């Protein structure tokens, strides 16, 4: 009986390892995409801030453009907190 349980454990172990490897790769890809998006957002914000708005219409447009990255960061932060709850330590 112990031999059968031992065989089941050894057969299950590679599948568990493969699952964790896929999860790790998926997490790494997600992090890389997030870093790329953060870089793109920071370039956009830096471009907007280099030349400040003068006219009211430009100020409104600038406000809209700068509020979008803030919302993106807030959404990403909230999503990351939800994901962290489900990840094993």
* End-to-end CA span: 33 Å
CA radius of gyration is 23 Å
Characterize the largest beta sheet: strand count, sense, and whether it forms a barrel.
none
Percent range for β-strand residues? under 5%
Total beta-strand segments: 0
Helicity range: over 70%
Q: What's the overall geometry?
A: elongated
Question: How many helical stretches?
Answer: 2
Write the H/E string, N to C: HH
Number of domains: 1
- The unreliable regions are none
Average pLDDT confidence is: 78
Structural class: mainly alpha
Characteristic key phrases:
89 residues, mainly alpha
What does the secondary structure layout of this molecule look like, with pairings?
Elements: H1 2-50, H2 56-86
What does this protein look like?
The protein has one domain. Helix 1 runs antiparallel to helix 2. The mean pLDDT is 78. The protein is built from two helices and no strands. With 89 residues, the chain is mainly alpha-helical. The chain is elongated. The two termini are 33 Å apart.
Task: Summarize this entry quickly.
By secondary structure, the chain is mainly α.
């Amino acid at each position: 009986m112990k031999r059968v349980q031992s065989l089941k454990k050894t057969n299950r172990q590679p599948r568990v390892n493969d699952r964790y490897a896929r999860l790790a790769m998926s997490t790494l890809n997600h992090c890389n995409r997030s870093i790329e998006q953060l870089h793109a957002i920071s370039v956009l914000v830096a471009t907007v801030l280099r030349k400040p708005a003068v006219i009211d219409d430009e100020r409104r447009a600038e406000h809209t453009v700068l509020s979008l990255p803030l919302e993106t960061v807030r959404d990403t932060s909230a999503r990351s907190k939800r994901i962290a709850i489900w990840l094993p330590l």
